[in-house]
């Protein structure tokens, strides 16, 4: 059974960087599309970045475009979210999840994801 575990969150100041990790067990990440989501207090969960199984396509939320990137390490079976130039509005719990539907596997929509991890808290504050 596929399980995902996020890590790397913390408290940083505006303008700083963080790299989040998503470790998978039970299934090779290189064979699946995976995405990062976040949920801020009082807000709905939103998609941040998605990468297809062959890393040929990514989907980036406008709010993080130019600041966040997604990558995978197939040897370690991990996916990373590099977050640069962090802003207070990036404060949220960040989750990784795998695509479960045809459209989500192509990184065309933010619905149709599952196998959610427990999340990792990112707080951006001075």
Regions with pLDDT < 50 over 5+ consecutive residues?
none
* Proportion of helical residues: under 10%
What does the main sheet amount to? 7 strands, mixed
Distance separating the two termini: 40 Å
Radius of gyration: 13 Å
Give the mean pLDDT.
Answer: 93
DSSP summary: helix tally: 1
Tell me about this structure.
The protein is mostly beta strands and 126 residues long. The chain has one helix at residues 102-105; strands at residues 3-7, 10-12, 18-25, 34-39, 46-51, 58-60, 68-73, 78-83, 92-99, 113-114, 120-124. Strands 2, 4, 5, 6, 9, 10 and 11 form a 7-stranded mixed sheet that branches. Strand 4 (34-39) and strand 5 form a beta hairpin. The radius of gyration is 13 Å and the shape is globular. The mean pLDDT is 93.
Topology, please?
Elements: E1 3-7, E2 10-12, E3 18-25, E4 34-39, E5 46-51, E6 58-60, E7 68-73, E8 78-83, E9 92-99, H1 102-105, E10 113-114, E11 120-124
Parallel strand pairs: 2-11
Antiparallel strand pairs: 1-3, 3-8, 4-5, 4-9, 5-6, 7-8, 9-10, 9-11
Entry keywords:
1 helix; mainly beta; 46% strand; 7-stranded mixed beta sheet; globular; 126 residues
Concise structural overview:
This protein has one helix at residues 102-105, and strands at 3-7, 10-12, 18-25, 34-39, 46-51, 58-60, 68-73, 78-83, 92-99, 113-114, 120-124. By secondary structure, the chain is mainly beta.
């Amino acid at each position: 059974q596929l399980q995902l575990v996020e890590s790397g969150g913390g408290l940083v100041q505006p303008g700083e960087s963080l790299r989040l990790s998503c470790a998978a067990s039970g299934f090779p990440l290189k064979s699946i599309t995976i995405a990062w989501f976040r949920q801020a207090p009082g807000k709905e969960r939103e998609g941040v970045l998605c990468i297809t199984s062959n890393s040929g396509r990514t989907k980036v939320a406008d709010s993080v475009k130019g600041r966040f990137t997604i990558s995978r390490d197939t040897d370690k079976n991990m996916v990373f979210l590099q977050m640069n130039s962090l802003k207070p509005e990036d404060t949220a719990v960040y989750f990784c999840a795998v695509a479960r539907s045809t459209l989500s596997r192509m990184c065309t929509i933010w619905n149709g994801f599952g196998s959610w991890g427990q999340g990792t808290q990112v707080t951006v504050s001075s």
